[in-house]
Amino acid sequence: MAHDSLYAQPEAPAERAATHAWWRAALTRWDTLIVVVLAAVVLAASLSIDGFGSTGNAKFLLLDVVPIALIALPLTLIIITGEIDLSVASTLGLCSAVMGQLWLTGLPLELIVVLIVLLGGLLGAVNGVFVTRFGLPALAVTIGTLAAYRGLAYVVLGDRAVADFPYDWTAASLSTVAGGPLPWAMVMVLLLACAFGIVLHATPFGRTLYAMGNNAEAASFAGVSVATAKFWLFVASGAVSGVAGVYWTLRFASARADNAFALELAVVAAVLLGGVSIFGGRGALLGVLAGVLLLGTVRNALQLADVSSEALDVVTGSLLVASVVVPNVVGMARSWLRRRRRPAPA
Amino acid sequence: MSLRSRGARMGVIAAAVTALVLAAGCGGTTRGSEGGGGEPDVTTGTANPDAPLKEGLSVAFLPKQINNPYFTVADGGGKDAVTEFKGEYKEVGPSEASASSQVSYINTLTQQQTDVIATSANDPNAICGALTTARQTGAKVVTFDSDTKPECRDVFISQATAEGIADVQVEMIAEQIGGKGKIAVLSATPNATNQNEWIELMKKELEKPEYSDIDLVTVAYGNDDDQKSFQETQGLLRSYPDLKGIISPTTVGLAAAARYLSGSQYQGKVALTGLGTPNQMRQFVKDGTVEKFALWKPADLGYLAAYAGAALASGQITGEQGQTFTAGKLGEYTVGENGVIVLGPPTEFDKSNIDEFDF
Q1: Distance from B94 to chain A by nearest Cα, in Å?
Q2: B286 shares a domain with B205
Q3: Tens-digit pLDDT profile for residues A71-119
Q4: Residue A153 belongs to some domain of the structure
Q5: I need a labelling partner for A84 at 20 to 30 A (CA). Which of A143, A202, B130, B257 fits?
Q6: Interface test with B, best of A258, A307, A313 (most B CBs within 10 A)
Q7: Average pLDDT, integer, range A154-166
Q8: Are B169 and B145 in contact (CB under 8 A)?
Q9: Which residues contact B49 (CB under 8 A, 6 or more apart)?
């Protein structure tokens, strides 16, 4: 493995852990780097851009990243196992459309929210069945459901919008803790992040996810039920997308079939920027949260600085490419240096 | 039976979900049962029609999407107006016209304490919350082209009244076919709100005695798709060989129908008119396929939106019905019901003036 030390590794090889001081290992990890970059960007923006540091702006920034942060949590686990779920934004859209339709039929909103999360889980289970039972590649399956779920959303709601949700509920989606900069929705994200973080980093199940990403065959020989684990990850991804659908619908007071169109790209970008390897087996949740915030902060700061939206897209795209290219280049350079220092094998 | 068996586990999950659903379903919030608590009102103060226009107002245009030619021209009109009253103009907006993408731009403008936000809404509801926040912090909100819910903005600049749009098209076709004969309508989609409203009003207008010799035989739908509109035009002329004229109240339909006619034996024999843009229609006006068509001037729409915003920010108007203000070269305007300001009758374009316009 060429780029070991730039990715978070739950089980670093013992001999290397001994030769490197722990802080050096931590400093060269990609997710630590992203946290540092995030802090630097926040600091630079607060100093140089009018209005960036205000409470109101912090609130808007956090509200904007909530759906991406939500969906990124289960997606991190899925990508660590070496799979992918590209249907998340369409799942969100379909959930939003169904939520609007159910509201029109007069069901109570509390019940609708529960049903929508279940619907999300069901949509995720469909992905899970295709990937684990039929052994199809997740990329193909979820590109298929990306189109299918978005199409279904239009079947459900057409180009109409349902917008007469009660004000108490739509206002709640924007409300903050003690009127400060931290939205309650972000608190929900953080609680969920803790749950996913514990599962990923502090349980045997979490360790098996890394094992699957590194070598699914070996993992299944070692007695790990790869199919069951992946199936439930897809269910979780769908259910969380459903939660994001409820949040999106209430925040914009509008249930529409085109809600969150193409959001999957932003989510995958944030996850990769956070140091998760697209090939599976590497990544940490903290890095992903930092990646989500970094993308959101850069967008917000550049918008405040009146940078045009085309330039914004170029910057976000470049960040993504850099996040994939830089660790690889650094890793290659390192191993080249290492090879030069050691005597060539005879 | 232990909880380890698969069936039992599923049973427990199902029972838990059912309990949750039942608990959630009892005494919940349903549509129609909402008690109180709408959007908070924004206080608007009182109007002083004699207040001078303030200088140095920051005016931001937020179109449905940037790089859309229609909005580029409309916002350009806004820029001219802002330059006239010595304000600061800027245009911001998303690169894709989605319902929620405008929200973060409105939030940004709120942070920047922009005096006037002129926007065309992708969704009448999705940007409401953000606009309300902006207004609570002192911004004046003008919508143009596409409105939000009335309580979310100060005034709406409407391109023209529906009657004005319908009547001008009937008048043009009557003039071009000599007030007599069969006509057809080539519309957008069967459920397009604007087009359906105009077509109904055209039918009403055609009932007037001066149009009694004109017979509207059918309405065809080109779905605002160039190829479909082209084929529908072909179909109309095959089904009604004695058709005298076609009205197409949509820019896509009008351009496609003109393209068909210009390459057929019907060129110059079947009249065609409707709503179109000068750039799309120029060649067909010049080759004689189309004599005259109409549209509002998008630049004037932006120009009026900017002046309305300045009048609001200067306290000349508050958005109440009956208040008046002067919009530079366009003259005096009156705020109508629900804070709607109508730009005026559509502009007619023909050989004599089409080269003066570039949009």
Answers
A1: 6
A2: yes
A3: 999 999 999 999 999 999 999 999 999 999 999 999 999 999 999 999 9
A4: yes
A5: A202
A6: A258
A7: 88
A8: no
A9: B316, B317, B323, B324, B325
Q: Contact B66/A64, CB-based, under 8 Å? A: no
In this structure, are B121 and B143 located in the same domain? yes
Instruction: Count how many domains chain A has.
Output: 1
Residues B171 and B279 reside in one and the same domain: yes
Of B186, B283, B308, B200, which Cα lies nearest the Cα of B240?
B186
B89 pLDDT higher than 50: yes
Nearest CA distance, B22 vs chain A (angstrom) = 8
pLDDT single digits (tens) B205-250: 999 999 999 999 999 999 888 999 999 999 999 999 999 999 999 9
In terms of residue numbers, what domain contains B185? 162-295
CB-CB under 8 Å, A304 with B108: yes
CA distances, B183 to each of B28, B230, B246 (Å): 55, 17, 6
Asked if residue A37 belongs to a domain, the reply is no
Work out the average pLDDT over A324-337.
79
Amino acid at site B57: L
What pTM, to 2 d.p., does this model score?
0.80
**Distance in angstroms (rounded) separating the CA atoms of residues A338 and B87:** 62
Q: Which residues contact B221 (CB under 8 A, 6 or more apart)?
A: B186, B187, B188, B189, B190, B232
CATH number at residue B172: 3.40.50.2300
B128 shares its domain with B117: yes
Whether B105 and B151 map to the same domain: the answer is yes
**Residue of A110, A295, A314 to mutate for B, most B C-beta atoms under 10 A:** A110
Query: B-contacting residues of A 72-111, CB under 8 Å?
Result: 103-104, 106-111
Task: Note the ipTM here.
Answer: 0.76
Taking CA atoms, what residue in A is nearest to B133? A56
Distance from the B256 Cα atom to the nearest Cα atom in chain A, whole angstroms: 24
Residue A47 belongs to a domain: no
Q: Could you give the C-alpha distances from A126 to A99, A146, A237, B262, in angstroms and in order?
A: 19, 12, 11, 52
Contact criterion met (CB < 8 Å) for B29 and A118: no
Tokens of B141: 């909100």
- State the pLDDT at residue A14: 46
* Inside any domain, residue B191: yes
Domain that holds residue A98: 63-268
Q: Is residue B63 situated within a structural domain?
A: yes
Mutate: best of A59, A62, A66, A109, partner B, most B CBs <10 A: A109
- Examine residue A9 and state whether it is found in any structural domain, yes or no: no
User: What are the residues of chain B with a beta carbon less than 8 Å away from any beta carbon of chain A?
Assistant: 17, 20-21, 24-25, 27-32, 34, 37-39, 66-67, 90, 92-96, 98-100, 103-105, 107-108, 110-113, 123-129
B7, part of any domain:
no
Residue B335 maps to a domain? yes
